[in-house]
Amino acid sequence: MIKRCLMMAGLLAASGSGFGAGFQLYTEGSAEALGQAGAVSGCTNLTSLAWYNPAALAGSKNTQVMAGNTFALIDTDFNSALNPALDSEMEHHWRSIPHFYTVLPVSDKLTGMLSVNAPYGLVTEWKDSWAGSPAATRTELSTIYTTPALAFKLTDRLSVAAGFNVVYAEADLQAYRGAALGMRKLTGDDIGYGGTASAHWQVNDDWGVGARYQSRVELKLDGDVEYENNPGLGGKFGMTGKVTLPSSVNVGVANSSFEKLRLGLDVVWSEWSTYDALVYVFPTNPYEGPVESNPKRWKDVWSVRIGGEYDLTENWVLRGGYVWDESPVDSATLAPELPGSDRHMLTTGIGWKGERIGIDLAYSFLWAEDCYTGSGVVSSVPTSAGEYETETHLVALSASYEF
């Protein structure tokens, strides 16, 4: 069984070490949300609440559509503990991470909506010859969440919502398995289902409180393993496994007591203890298996997001925020596929809103605290011993239209 999370930023790509807890991404939402560090659960004025807290959009008056992309550049360096000649850096590529939302009022109290996001993701890519190649050279794990939801206004101040997650997951993992086998490539995918529920309480004109729950999603991967630069091994062999995407809970407050200024605070809990081991099952592979197990022992973690926006004029708004993100990675099992540690992120953004059209732009700088290859990994791949340093640049652009 593969008890793990397979995720990738965007419909195509992102990076694990450069984003949120585990494989969780802060880039799954719009530029309007990223600009204020995703601290928006208690707000009511954002189209992307169709994902962050659908209940906050109950009673919307007009149909809204938003689409956009986040572009990410990740810089991870490996400093060998054995020999400076073994130092390496991760391959640098800009990654494109799309998002889409639509909000459809049904009545004065009922609102339908649809969001398409990539809330979890991972791409780490090292040179084939780097010191940790027996552990990982490329890890590309992806999900796409398509979430229809309905929000209902119970009272003038209290609303609730429920939604259905349709999740597509895909994996591509590569590692050098020695001269006899060469470069091993694992691929697999599946579609799974889950649910989401949320609530919003407008306490008074100045204070709002929001909460959202995302359920676990169980996936069964069916795929193949092949040895790319060793065709004499006989082509592809089957691979199967199970994937558990974690549940999460967001709770946030928003305040608009100050003229032109709106502030938000979100606390997020993520159930990363679902990632207990990375296990491959090879039922027909004569060269490896039938089971390969790598312990992970991740833990449940917390994240704190603080953000706000300030009205510069009637049409222009300035945004900013900060995120502290606890790493779920067990220090003894930290591996090159995700050299994770506690992370910090500073964000800024600007938005323009006309009568119907809106444009939002955001920039974020994320850095991870230095971390070291786990002792359990070093014992099996001694040349992987060393320190990882990671920085990430994110640029997001969203466009919206209100009918």
Automatic annotation (TrEMBL):
Keywords: Cell outer membrane, Membrane, Signal, Transmembrane, Transmembrane beta strand
Membrane topology: Multi-pass membrane protein
GO molecular function: long-chain fatty acid transporting porin activity
Keyword check for Transferase: no
Signal peptide: 1-20
Residue stretches in coiled coil: none
Protein's cellular compartments: Cell outer membrane
Protein family per UniProt: Belongs to the OmpP1/FadL family.
Protein name: Transporter
Source species: Tichowtungia aerotolerans
